[in-house]
Amino acid sequence: MNNQPRQAASYTAVSGFVMLLYGAYLLNSGFSAVASASPIYSLAVEVFKWTLLAGGLLLLLAAAICLAGHRNGLLLDAVVSGMSGIILVICAGIWMTKGKGFDIQDAVILIFGVILIREAAASWRSFGATVAAVTPPPAPAAPVPPHPASIHPDALPIGQEPPEGYLAALSKEKQEPPSASYE
Cα(91)–Cα(38) distance, rounded to whole angstroms? Predict the structure, then answer.
């Protein structure tokens, strides 16, 4: 069995745990956009909170599947990390452009989003490598035996008509007649 899913499990579990922990904190603390914020800013806040919770749970699930040694965990990790990373980068971009400006939280979320996107690319490459390792090569085709008419006996001259008494010459040969089967 390929060991790549088990190697990726710890990174996936850490990302999932951090996302889930931070998402639960934001949800329980009542984190929301200020009333004067634009609708797109408020939407970005809500999408961010639920991305942290759902993405964290799915990444922990992907880590458990990877820890079991199944390569499908790498595929789940690639999809969830990629989508979560893209959403976090978009949310950070919205907050920087529609909010009060650039602050440290926006930078951290932007960096974490980029890290998740890179993790998705690494998991996708690992998934592709495990597919290649799991897929057996095709079996070689059985050799085709020669047609009996293509066997050229030693007594027959090459490129000439058979001489008179050809069958008599064949009967006088000391070797066995040619065979079309492989032995």
Answer: 13
CB distance 84 to 19 below 8 Å:
yes
Query: What are the structure tokens assigned to 113, written together?
Result: 């989003």
pTM recorded for the entire structure: 0.67
Mean pLDDT of 122-147: 76
List pLDDT tens digits, range 50-69: 999 999 999 999 999 988 88
User: Any alpha helices (H) in the chain, and if so which ranges?
Assistant: 4-29, 39-67, 72-98, 104-134, 166-172
Mean pLDDT for all residues in the chain: 81
d(CA 45, CA 66): 31
Which residues, at least 6 apart from 146, have a Cβ–Cβ distance to it below 8 Å? Answer: 180
The burial of 144, by beta-carbon neighbours within 10 Å (0-12 exposed, 13-18 middle, 19 or more buried), is given as exposed
Task: Quote the DSSP letter at residue 150.
Answer: G
